[in-house]
Amino acid sequence: MITMLNKSITLSILGLISILVLFPLGVVFITSIVPIGMTIKEAITQNYYTWENYQEAWKQGNFILAFANSTGVAIAVTFFQIVTSTTAGYALSRLSFSGRNSILLLVLATLVIPFQLLVIPIFLVLKWGNLINTYWAMILPTAANGYSIFLMRQFFLTIPIELEEAALLDGANRLQILWNILLPLSRPALVTLFLISFIAEWNDLFKPLVFTTRPELRTVQLAVAAFQEEFTNSWSVLMAVVVIVTLPIIILFLFGQKQFIRGIGTTGLKN
């Protein structure tokens, strides 16, 4: 009886939290299908909605190039983060060398440093390398990430070391062990890393705003900011833009949510 009561209370709390989280999203979607010049109350009362706001938003926003730029940058950054995080995470979890704990502390220390504090030195480095106003200016600053390295290190620690010892006895080197044994077993962590990195880059406004000025390099978030300046009085069209920009991330998360939950749940079990 007590167990059922606790379960009911837990479900009620989770349901309330879900409503609080989803309510603003519901308002955004409803607003996006309300005809221009009509309030939400009037649209609901008259049961009159339209999809013309999405057509207008897509037509006026010219989002094709912005979507392509954001997708390309997000995939590139995610690829580099997977490479750097898996190699660094493996070294910090399996290799014994002098200063390993100090390096781990330095990696963790980067998590408390806001990116905005580093923007001036990063800008100077990019300028020195003639990378301002290029795709590399949006890729290289976040090609490595302290959280991603820590995530992969924690996941590697959950994999039995006996598998590696057996592979070493069979003559495999460290790179072969990482590629043929650890990475196939790390699918949940890799999917989690991919989703976190891709979503962060897709939603990033700061790097494109600071490091680029060319219109052909405009990303989705810059396109939304520019669109907002032109359609500040048309909330229905603005909300349609928000839905359009958010939809790819929602679809991507739905495809990888099981692996994401498993990856988050299995990291941090060892120290």
What does this structure look like?
With 271 residues, the protein is mainly alpha-helical. It is 75% helix and 0% strand. It has a single domain, classed as Orthogonal Bundle (MetI-like fold). 27% of the residues are buried. The mean pLDDT is 85. It is a multi-pass membrane protein. Belongs to the binding-protein-dependent transport system permease family. Pfam families: BPD_transp_1. Keywords: Cell membrane, Membrane, Transmembrane, Transmembrane helix, Transport.
Sum up the structure in keywords.
single chain; 0% strand; 271 residues; transmembrane helix; 14 helices; mainly alpha; MetI-like fold
SSE blueprint and pairings:
Elements: H1 2-32, H2 40-46, H3 52-61, H4 63-94, H5 100-109, H6 119-128, H7 136-139, H8 146-157, H9 161-169, H10 174-185, H11 187-202, H12 206-211, H13 220-230, H14 235-266
Subcellular location: Cell membrane
Domain ABC transmembrane type-1: 67-256
Family: Belongs to the binding-protein-dependent transport system permease family.
